[in-house]
Amino acid sequence: MLCGAFAWDCVIRDVSSQGVKIQMLAGATPPDQMQLVDIAEGQAHDVVVAWRRDRELGLRILRTYDLRGLAPAAAGVARRIWRASRSETDPG
User: Fold this and answer.
1) CA nearest 46: which of 56, 33, 57?
2) Per the structure, how many domains does the chain have?
3) Tens of pLDDT, residues 37-54
4) At the N or C end, where does the chain have fewer CB atoms within 10 A?
5) Is the torsion defined by CA of 66, 71, 75, 78 positive or negative?
């Protein structure tokens, strides 16, 4: 998850067309609006928090960016994170 110069690690637990359920890996409390980077799918989502319960958050998706092609400036940091994660897992 990204917000400005800050990033937090989380695990995506469930995804639907309208929202995402995540679990924070640390006790951090992210802001109500941020960007979620889905490394596995190559997507970034502008999201707002719909609910919080302990370390779980329900996020409503406002906009989705495909990081596999040309990404707008709003998804630039997300795309760099996604590309870096691919190079770390790519054995070739």
Assistant:
1) 33
2) 1
3) 999 999 999 999 999 999
4) C
5) positive
Q: Which position has the token pair 């054995």?
A: 91
Amino acid of residue 21: K
Mean residue pLDDT of the chain comes to 91
Query: How many alpha carbons fall within 13 Å on the CB side of residue 13?
Result: 11
Which residues lie closer than 8 Å to 52 by C-beta, 6 or more apart?
58
Q: Which residue has the higher pLDDT, 64 or 89?
A: 64
- How would you write 15-44 as a 3-class SS string? ECCCEEEEEECCCCCCCCEEEEEECCCCEE
Q: How far is CA 86 from CA 10, 33, 91, in A?
A: 17, 26, 10
